[in-house]
Amino acid sequence: MLELIITSTLNGILFGMLLFLMASGLTVIFSMLGVLNFAHASFYMLGAFFGFQISRWVGFWPALFIAPLLAGALGAAVERFGLRRVHRNGHVAELLFTFGLAFAIEEVVQMIWGKSPVDFRIPPSLDFPAFSIFSTNYPAYKMFMLLVSIAIFVGLLVVLKKSRVGLIVQAALTHPHMVAHLGHNVERVFMLVFGVGTALAAVAGVIAGPALVTQSNMAALLGPILFVVVVVGGLGSLPGAFVASLLIGLVQTFAVSMNGSLAGAFGPLSPDYAQSWLSDIWGVTVAQIAPIMPYVLLVLILIFRPMGLLGTRET
Amino acid sequence: MTELASRVAPPYPQPSERIKFYGLWAATVLLLLVLPRLFGSGGALTTFSLIGISIIFSLSYNILLGQTGLLSFGHAVYYGLGGFLAIHAVNLIGANKLPIPLPFVPLIGGMTGLFFAALLGWVSTQRSGTAFAMISLGVAELIASSALILRTFFGGEAGISANRTKLIRFFDWNFGPQIQIYYLVAAWTVIAIIAMYALTRTPFGRMCNAVRDNPERVQFVGYDPHVIRYLAFCFAGFFAGIAGALAAINFEIANSAYLGAVQSGTVLFSTYIGGVGYFIGPIVGAIFVTALSLGLSDLTSVWQLYFGLFFIAVVTFAPGGITGLLMMHRPLLKGGTLAKVVPYYLISLVPTLAMIAGLVLAIETVVHHTVNPGEDPNIRAFGISFNASSPITWLAALVLVVAGFYVARKTWIRLAHAWDEAMTAARDKGHST
């Protein structure tokens, strides 16, 4: 039992940190441009596929740097030539633009790499067990993922809170006109933030690619969970996104590892249910409903705290 | 007060306008009646049925997006649940020999859509804008994932099927042949269009528009925007349920794809491409998108990519959709200055088409090399043969895209100038809309 709790906690924090790598970019972009980038998970997918292709050519370590750069450049280009033009048509048009983009990126990935999963392997230098808890070996690659995401999280925090660039970004979030009057190119700041945000998503893609499945539907699988994270945390709130990422990461990992069901818990009490269509609800295990846990959480949050955990802003 | 009312109220419609209005409806009904006589083949009838279903679904979506300003990513939930309940209803009615003929089954679907919209809508519509869009997505994922868990009711991956001919006959029709299904769909389409058009003319319809444009002011007038959004959501769910039930009757099956993200995306595409600003927009979009997806899927394997690119182009360059684009020309037509713009259209058409051709060439070549690399390099796309591995093809694609874009951009700028001049001339003559 203790073993299960420790491994699930580690896995949950890992999944949560991966989610936060993406949710942080999404949140900052939302606060700045007022648009929720529907294609954010697509950049995560692009990161994974770029990482796969580049690691085939020159190895995993260069890929870890080149793939996010490429995806980030692509993201900046999307902002510069796409979103900025659509901006004058309003927020709905911007959201729909990114929706169409997500659709198109998935089709392009499917066209180039096919529909079946690609063989993206853990680099040999990290393919060993880091330590063992009781009887289970915990892979070193997962520790590496955890370290990378924590390092980026700390780096992001320092840049945003301590550096001059972070100061300008923070100012541009709330007072874009004032920042422009002070002589900063706010449009370029927006473009760079978009580029960095998508690059962070791509980093998550490169490190998650070998551990999870690199497939053309990975954006469609993760995207909705990502939006749940930003809504649950409160739209535009970075600390909220952090809390919500960890929460959802832990909830989902713990749910997957549990096997209980209503039938298991109350089985002897009422065997009549087992015959009707209610048997589905009766017999389903917690592990089976793990995929819907984030959405249940979303509905609960919306009922009890519509602005999100740490959100203040009404949109 | 009377003076104010006489100024604010629209003038009483002239008899000629009334004839035009009712004539349009009569012509629509007449067209739907004679369509099977003109195109009687089975494939055409299936296409018409699909278009009819898509029209109801898109119009119901536009109650949210166009009229109330709610961008939903999960409208297929109500469509799918309507479809599932309709299938179960057909099975139940058939098994118990209940005296309910098939034409009333879509109403069951509609009630299902209404019920679930009423259930889920209150939470969903608490907020508008981006938050609503994300919530609708989350709720849709919740329902779609639950559908795979509740296997007995939703039938898992395979879905639930039914036999529509087992119901009691309706005026000697058993709804086996596609032609009878076509008339069923056509009748429901007309009813739904009239109902939804009437809805836009009610005070409630106007309040929806007000909530879309300025929710704060709606509160000052004494309405609760949340309640109005909720009611609009319920109406949209009702009509989506009807569309879903018709789809289930048409295919005699309902599966989890009905509820899924793809279905929600498709209705969003067809509504937006048609144009959300006019009532007729989603109708145009439904016809266009259904015909396009059926036509394109025969021509190329990556039709969805073209579809996505087309959607991006519409969002970027024509936010009003197809109807918005056409309606832009109304003042020019009335002012008689349309002829000034036409030559510029024709000029800019040439490089634009060249650019698109280059893009298509590039995509098809890439597809050939990635999807079926070992096969004969001489491929056909859109009825044109070319050699996918020769460097000439690559070069041609590159030149067409780059040069086409460069020249096209110049012609677009000149077109914009000509447009402005024609518009000014039309405005001087007193035709501004």
Structure description:
The complex is a heterodimer of chains A (315) and B (433). Chain A is mostly helical. Helix content of chain A is 71%, strand content 3%. Chain A has 13 helices and 2 strands; from the N terminus they run ααααββααααααααα. Chain A has a two-stranded antiparallel ribbon with strand order 1-2. Chain A starts with a helix and ends in an 11-residue tail after the last helix. Chain B has 18 helices and 4 strands. In chain B, strand 3 and strand 4 form a beta hairpin. In chain B, helix 3 runs parallel beside helix 8, helix 3 crosses helix 12 and helix 9 packs across helix 11. Chains A and B meet through helix 3, helix 4, helix 9, helix 12 and helix 13 of A and helix 6, helix 7, helix 12, helix 14 and helix 17 of B.
User: Taking strands numbered 1, 2, ... along the chain, how are they ordered across the largest sheet of chain B?
Assistant: 1-2
Q: Structural class of the secondary structure composition of chain A?
A: mainly alpha
> What's the alpha carbon Rg of chain B, rounded to whole Å?
24 Å
Q: Name the average pLDDT of chain B.
A: 83
Give the low-pLDDT segments of chain A: none
Share of helix among residues of chain B? over 70%
Strand content of chain B: under 5%
Strand content of chain A: under 5%
Q: Give the strand order of the largest sheet of chain A, numbering strands 1, 2, ... along the chain.
A: 1-2
CA radius of gyration of chain A? 21 Å
Number of helices of chain B: 18
The mean pLDDT of chain A is 83
| CATH architecture title of the largest domain in chain B | Orthogonal Bundle
**Terminal Cα span of chain B:** 29 Å
The count of strands of chain A amounts to: 2
Q: Which CATH first-tier class of the largest domain in chain B would you pick?
A: Mainly Alpha
**SSE pattern of chain A:** HHHHEEHHHHHHHHH
Q: What is the H-and-E element order of chain B?
A: HHHHHHHEHHHHEHHHHHHEEH
Greatest interface: A-B, 51 and 47 residues
Question: What spatial form of chain A do the alpha-carbon principal axes imply?
Answer: globular
